[in-house]
Amino acid sequence: MAFQNGFLWGGAIAANQVEGGLHEGGKGLSVADVAKYKPLVDVKDYRAHNAISLEQIEEAIHGEDEWYPKRRGIDFYHHYKEDIALFAEMGFKALRISIAWSRLFPRGEEELPCQEGVKYYLSVFEELKKYGIEPIVTLSHYEMPLDLALKYNGWTSRKMIDYFLNFVFSCFSNFGEYVKYWLNFNEIDSIIRHPFTSGGIIPELCENGNVRQCAYQAAHHQFLASAYAKMLMEKLFPDAKMGCMLTKLTTYPRTCAPEDVAATQQMNLENLFYSDVMVFGEYPKLMLQRLKNEGIEIKMCEQDAEILKDGTVDFVSFSYYMSRTESVDPKMERVPGNTIVGVKNPYLESSAWGWQIDPVGLRISLIELYDRYHLPLMVVENGMGAKDVVEENGHINDRYRIDYFKEHFLEMEKAIDMGVEILGYTSWAPIDLISASTNQMSKRYGFIYVDQDDEGNGTLKRLKKDSFYWYRDVIKSNGKSLHEQE
Length: 486
What we know:
With 486 residues, the protein is α/β, with parallel strands linked by helices. It contains 16 helices and 16 strands. It has helices at 15-18, 46-50, 54-61, 76-89, 101-104, 115-130, 146-152, 159-175, 195-199, 211-236, 258-280, 285-293, 304-310, 359-373, 399-417, 466-476; strands at 8-12, 94-98, 134-140, 181-185, 241-247, 251-253, 315-319, 324-326, 334-336, 341-343, 349-350, 356-357, 377-381, 422-428, 448-450, 462-464. The strands form five sheets. The protein has an eight-stranded parallel barrel with strand order 1-2-3-4-5-7-13-14, surrounded by four helices. Strands 6-8 form a two-stranded parallel ribbon. Strands 9-10 form a two-stranded antiparallel ribbon. Helix 14 (359-373) packs parallel to helix 15 (399-417). The mean pLDDT is 96.
């Protein structure tokens, strides 16, 4: 069977990690723009990197831009034509992007969008159209206007639904003719792990400091916003599709001890809870009981159940970088992953940032999700952060990246052969960008190297790595080159 004709090969980026241009086009500060680069903090300590307080936000508002790398990104704001041309040279069929909420609505409460922001994104979509690249657009990718976080404690307030839908309507009405595939919230489950980044939640503004209560309430409001956005899309562009987006945190029992299996089961149920709500249009009974047992009470209006049922998604997309294991044994060594920590799997190798590399886990994840939801899937983030070396002649040998992708693609192909319907694959990220978790530039994911260091020094020159040409061949052959001897 292999990859079907029309398979959407491509890459994925986020506005807050690539655009820059903070002081141009009327853009306002977002939650991403106050994420500080912390060179003295261990790269594996995600809790410390994501920590936030009102004092830190105030410091950031008046702080020097150089300490807040997402304000500069890789200057995609000015380089988008060059970068899209490079994606086209690789043969991209699709590019996943996001629309920065604070570029259209600087404070979030404006009635009408900033026209400079609209004009910028229209030019990006026109450029993609010129090369026949299908945009896959994430509506919310960690880019909430900072003012909404400070004024309402982000998504903990139900008012956020109306502000978000005003933004969504602006996106649909201005860009809808270009977009067939929309995603609602990036890694929506991450709100429980980094509530400020994902939901604008500030711990000091949570009643009694109960951040978990706020996070689950905020998730409920995001579920409703997703449903409303889906229904609005159906009215305006009935041929378009709306997908949810999950961090697929596939977890294995560290041992076959029943208690390890039971603990693992609970972690996987928690991970799938978020997509369950958006696919099935209702809360899983087991999750409702778990929340009750924890003393968490989600405030719901009478019509919420009907709204969730009426606004279910058309497909499921997800990020997959690594797997983890779980054990009830407190002596087990724990290692970091995608903003999570899990028990180390002795059968897997790890990246320089401690993420365990598990290509087979992608196949397992695809089969699990398709069997559970019976909906088309998209792999919209997958990749490996690494430190690349530019040789004197400008050559960048990143064989490790090629090996990583080849192994994952072959496992994806096996899932397709087993009957899983996959619409497309977009690597994270096709061009080097600012890391979401550690705000580093040196954690490089791209097929394209960007000459910029962690402090923002460099020419911003784009260089093709060896993986650039390798991925170009994969796309051109629709995966057939994976089976050729190198």
